[in-house]
Design a protein that fits this description.
Length: 120
């Protein structure tokens, strides 16, 4: 179906549907140089996006950026670095730190079981 019919079925304007397409919130067009035809898959994708926007109170642009973070490693890394800097993301624990803590815990447990204090 054409964009006008698809927009009517989705309860939005053709302009809003084109905006969502420009943001990458629609499945890619099949075939090089092909005009978009809206089928059930495209309608379902837009409906799902609208539902997510309402559920999480985000704009189409915010949802599109979230998808970009999931699919573009450079963007994901930049957002992660910001999250670390502002304290919204915790740095991953290093494997050696984990192993050190595990060894110290085992020593404390062994010392407690034998009644001796652990050496530091």
């Amino acid at each position: 179906m054409r964009i006008t019919e698809a927009a009517r079925r989705l309860g939005m304007s053709p302009r809003m549907l084109r905006y969502r397409e420009a943001l990458g919130l629609l499945p890619p067009v099949r075939g090089k140089g092909a005009h978009r035809r809206f089928g059930e898959e495209e309608l379902a994708a837009v409906a799902q996006a609208v539902e997510l926007e309402k559920r999480f109170n985000v704009s189409p642009a915010e949802l599109a950026f979230g998808l970009r973070v999931l699919t573009d490693p450079a963007v994901a890394q930049a957002v992660r670095e910001l999250g670390l800097r502002i304290g919204r993301v915790q740095a991953p624990r290093r494997v050696l730190d984990f192993e050190k803590e595990k060894a110290l815990r085992l020593l404390r447990e062994r010392a407690t079981a034998s009644g001796k204090a652990p050496h530091r």
